[in-house]
Specification:
Layout: E1 2-9, H1 10-18, E2 22-24, H2 37-48, E3 56-62, E4 69-75, H3 77-87, H4 112-120, E5 122-129, H5 133-145, H6 152-159, H7 163-182, H8 187-191, H9 194-208, H10 215-224, H11 232-247, H12 260-274, H13 294-309, H14 318-325, H15 331-346
Parallel strand pairs: 2-4, 3-5
Antiparallel strand pairs: 1-5, 3-4
């Protein structure tokens, strides 16, 4: 068999699909399920911004009687379908897109500049020529043999294509700079979706209260919110403002207080203090939202950071230090950190 690497512009690729020169081979596709709107919107947004998407794999077949050649999509059905559907004006981009010029719009409603970016985008394709179906199957079997095992978050990301997954993905994209600049994550951790895990655990706490979480609990959240996710706007209104406030806390950036398990508790406290969270009220009751006084709050937070760095597990901050250094995923320790941060923020 022969493998040829080539490129199609979106315009050429869609024209080939329209002429049925490029078709889906359902024998190779793992699922016929159509991606939800958020997933398709995210792909088109990626293309318009010029970011790379995963390579597509086509199998070139020639009919000896008609002497016509067609290309069958053996990997990339959902991506191809989403691109072709947008090309045909069949769906709108998500209203949550961060570009005001394209959000909520169909292809025909985009400005000419963005239409051109979409049509000119280069799709990377591997084309299998003079191959048998069994050889194509063997290619993917061998490719998968060398794939790095997925961690729990990557498995969830691969398994679910519903509203909750794409909400977490979108929020992670919007917070990437904050995560890197403040020291919560390094680039390598973002590649393995550590940020998605943190955001999933935060979402779970706002929905179900602060508790010990594990793989099964987080999987259930993705599953339960896959089709219906009415809390999306509420969670977005909690998480994004909390991390924007977190960004302003420069004295504690790159300290112990921005490790992921600490950021989990600190952003919960910020969200609760500025707009009380019903699920957190039994832990720290507030009569009304409070404006943060940085002159008072930052010295307290800095003192907490120093206590953790010095491992001062006795004295004024002893309980907080212990809750920050051992069994950090356990409910009781999470509650201790949350209450301590609330006290530091409002006194």
């Amino acid at each position: 068999m022969e493998r040829v690497s080539t490129n199609f512009t979106v315009a050429d690729y869609c024209a080939g699909m329209r002429r049925e020169e490029i078709t889906v081979n359902h024998d190779y596709q793992r699922s016929d399920q159509v991606w939800p709107q958020l997933a398709r919107s995210y792909l088109i947004d990626t293309i318009i911004k010029g970011f790379p998407i995963a390579k597509l794999y086509l199998y070139q077949v020639t009919d000896v009687k008609s002497r016509k050649t067609r290309k069958e999509i053996v990997d990339g059905q959902q991506r191809s379908t989403a691109i072709y559907s947008f090309y045909n004006d069949e769906f709108r981009l998500a209203k949550s897109a961060d570009n005001e010029d394209i959000k909520g719009k169909k292809y025909s409603e985009l400005g000419e500049e963005y239409q051109q970016k979409f049509l000119d985008y280069s799709i990377n394709v591997d084309l299998f020529i003079a191959a048998t179906p069994s050889e194509v199957v063997e290619v993917f079997r061998r490719m998968n043999s060398y794939t790095v095992p997925l961690n729990a978050e990557e498995q969830r990301h691969a398994s679910y294509q519903g509203k909750f997954k794409w909400f977490i993905n979108e929020v992670a994209d919007r917070l990437e700079t904050i995560f890197i600049d403040t020291g919560v994550f390094k680039e390598k951790q973002l590649v393995r979706m550590a940020d998605n895990k943190l955001l999933t655990e935060l979402a779970d706490s706002f929905l179900n209260g602060i508790r010990t979480t594990n793989k099964e609990i987080l999987n259930a959240l993705y599953r339960d919110k896959d089709d219906q996710f009415p809390e999306q706007d509420e969670l977005s209104g909690r998480i994004l403002p909390a991390f924007n406030t977190f960004r302003q806390m420069e004295p504690i950036h790159h300290t112990e207080l921005v490790k992921p398990h600490m950021a989990y508790s600190l952003t919960q406290a910020i969200a609760h203090v500025t707009k009380p969270v019903r699920k957190f009220e039994t832990l720290f009751r507030l009569q009304r939202p409070k404006a943060l006084d940085w002159r008072l709050a930052m010295p307290r937070l800095t003192a907490l950071a120093q206590a953790v760095e010095r491992a001062e597990d006795t004295g004024k901050y002893g309980k907080f230090v212990k809750a920050s250094g051992e069994k950090t995923n356990v409910k009781s320790n999470r509650e201790t950190r949350f209450k301590t941060f609330c006290e530091a923020l409002v006194g």
